[in-house]
Amino acid sequence: MDFIYVDSTSVDQIGYDEDQREAHVIFKNGRHYVYSDVSEEIWDRLKDAQSKGTFINQEFKAKAYPYRQV
Description:
Layout: E1 3-5, E2 11-17, E3 22-27, E4 32-35, H1 40-48, H2 52-61, E5 67-69
Helix pairs in contact: 1-2
């Protein structure tokens, strides 16, 4: 899986594991979260989102995607 550096005030890198359907988010503070059950459509929307942090808050956190910190 490759990570993409993004232009964001809070997010440093994002990545997607298609086989596991997991979105990886590495924040500028160094924390790395893995969100489960993420469809490719949601992944594409995250990649295209103008504000990655806002998208994560509105999609992953507000809709209570399962996640873990690694």
